């Protein structure tokens, strides 16, 4: 088949597709596999019960079922959900927004595709603009989203060594190159894969930089505030007219409904709604049907703080304790301070094998993690650090399997350093 440049780029071997294929072939190999690789959220019984109940009442009410299944929502998204969100954000967070500041997309992944390509890439005047990531590692899902090539640029972070075998990445503002070839700045907060939460001061500095250069600041809150709230450190939700906040229902426990939420100025929202009409006609209605009541009542924030966050915090505490118990203390392993998300980001300093080789050895033993090198989006040099890290999801399995997986990780890391 003779594919266009677009067809080749998007139908070919993008990093994320190769990784997903590799993970699914390991899973379908018939062997027992301990999955600590993907980004699936935890199964939280209390949330599942609420959603099941909501599904039942929808199915039992012909008018609601017809509205859910039998009509298209507007390209900007389901109006009831948008109104409920506008009310929630202005009342609970004090953001000066109305329904004209919100659009719904089929998952936030599709929002990023539209936003990145409308703000960066080729411009009519022949210039090429990029998305500036304040630092890498960053979310792998951005890496291949550009219709034009070379869409991202990122700076190296500084690495602060902390106590208890922890470290933290910080933005090196003097290494950022924001200027006429920047289309937007984008950061995930909390960050996938590291669990970093950039500080309020860093957010304010990024906002000032974005405003000074007349480009938007995109904050990816897929794990963040106000829901699902997977943040275990003080952090203030941030929005203004120059900020584009992207949220999602996925990590609240609903990745299957594919609902992304974009909060931005009216012009951005109108542009997104137009694109959504062309690409999708309308966004799916399921997320709205399942959560509008929870959002209207504000219950979604209570559930995030009182049910979801504590469930993840308990899993995090178990994962950290188990890892330290199982790892050989003579190995120079470090962990990014886990301030958010559902991941541990482990750094094996000066490890004699690459993180990709470690990934393969672990896969051969039935444990799936993600090699860290995939996440250094926008880094063009061969920074050794990118071959020394792995990401593990500590929430998508039961504790017994997590401990078993960590035992195998500890053995393989020891073997890598010692033999
Ligand atoms: N942003 C980050 C940081 C993510 O980790 C993910 C998914 O794992 C997404 C965005 C996309 O999520 P969704 O398309 O399910 O809303």
How many structural domains does the protein architecture include?
2
> The CATH topology of the largest domain, please?
Aspartate Aminotransferase, domain 2
Shape label: globular
State mean pLDDT (0 to 100 scale). 95
Number of beta-strand segments: 16
Number of helices: 12
Biggest sheet overview:
8 strands, mixed
Helix content: 40-55%
Oligomeric state of the chains in view: single chain
Instruction: Give the CATH architecture of the largest domain.
Output: 3-Layer(aba) Sandwich
Helix-and-strand structural type: alpha/beta
Strand content: 15-25%
What compounds are bound to the protein? pyridoxal-5'-phosphate
Low-confidence stretches: none
CATH class of the largest domain: Alpha Beta
Describe the structure.
The chain is an alpha/beta fold. The protein has two domains: 5-47 and 303-418, Aspartate Aminotransferase, domain 1, CATH 3.90.1150; 72-298, Type I PLP-dependent aspartate aminotransferase-like (Major domain) (Aspartate Aminotransferase, domain 2), CATH 3.40.640. It is built from twelve helices and 16 strands. The chain has helices at 5-11, 15-27, 45-60, 62-69, 79-93, 107-119, 200-212, 266-280, 286-296, 299-326, 355-364, 399-418, and strands spanning 34-35, 102-106, 121-122, 128-133, 152-154, 158-161, 166-170, 182-188, 217-220, 243-248, 259-263, 333-336, 343-348, 367-368, 370-371, 389-393. The strands form three sheets. Strands 2, 3, 4, 5, 8, 9, 10 and 11 form an eight-stranded mixed β-sheet that branches. The longest helix is centred in the C-terminal third of the chain and has 28 residues, at 299-326. The protein is globular and about 65 Å long. Bound molecules: pyridoxal-5'-phosphate.
């Amino acid at each position: 088949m003779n594919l266009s440049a677009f067809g080749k780029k998007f139908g070919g071997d993008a990093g994320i597709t190769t990784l997903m294929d590799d993970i699914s072939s390991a899973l379908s190999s018939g062997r027992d596999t301990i999955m600590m690789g993907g980004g699936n959220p935890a199964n939280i019984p209390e949330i599942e019960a609420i959603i099941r109940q909501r599904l039942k009442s929808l199915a039992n009410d012909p008018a609601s079922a017809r509205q859910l299944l039998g009509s298209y929502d507007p390209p900007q998204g389901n109006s009831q959900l948008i109104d409920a969100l506008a009310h929630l954000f202005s009342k609970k967070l004090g953001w000066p927004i109305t329904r004209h500041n919100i659009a719904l997309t089929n998952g936030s992944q599709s929002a990023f595709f539209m936003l990145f390509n409308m703000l960066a890439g080729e411009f009519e005047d022949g210039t090429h603009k990029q998305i500036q990531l304040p630092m890498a590692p960053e979310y792998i899902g951005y890496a291949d989203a550009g219709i034009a090539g070379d869409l991202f640029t990122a700076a190296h972070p500084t690495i602060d060594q902390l106590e208890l075998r922890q470290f933290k990445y910080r933005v090196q503002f003097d290494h950022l190159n924001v200027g006429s070839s920047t289309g937007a700045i984008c950061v995930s907060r909390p960050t996938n894969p590291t669990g970093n939460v950039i500080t309020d001061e860093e957010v304010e500095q990024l906002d000032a930089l974005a405003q000074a250069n007349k480009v938007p600041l995109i904050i990816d809150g897929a794990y963040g505030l106000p829901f699902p709230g997977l943040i275990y450190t003080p952090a203030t939700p941030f929005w203004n007219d120059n900020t584009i906040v992207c949220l999602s229902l996925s990590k609240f426990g609903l990745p299957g409904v594919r609902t992304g939420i974009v909060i931005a100025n009216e012009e951005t929202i109108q542009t997104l709604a137009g694109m959504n009409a062309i690409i999708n006609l309308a966004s799916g209605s399921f997320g709205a049907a399942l959560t509008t009541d929870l959002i209207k009542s504000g219950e979604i924030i209570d559930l995030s703080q009182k049910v979801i966050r504590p469930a993840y915090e308990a899993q995090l505490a178990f994962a950290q304790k188990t890892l330290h118990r199982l790892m050989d203390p003579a190995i120079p392993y470090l962990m990014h301070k886990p301030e958010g998300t559902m991941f541990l980001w482990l750094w094996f300093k000066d490890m004699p094998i690459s993180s990709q080789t470690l990934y393969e050895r672990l896969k051969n033993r039935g444990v799936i993690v993600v090699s860290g090198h995939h996440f250094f989006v926008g880094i063009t040099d061969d920074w050794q650090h990118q071959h020394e890290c792995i990401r593990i999801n500590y929430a998508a399995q039961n504790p017994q399997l997590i401990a078993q997986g960590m035992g195998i990780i500890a053995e393989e890391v020891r073997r890598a350093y010692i033999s």
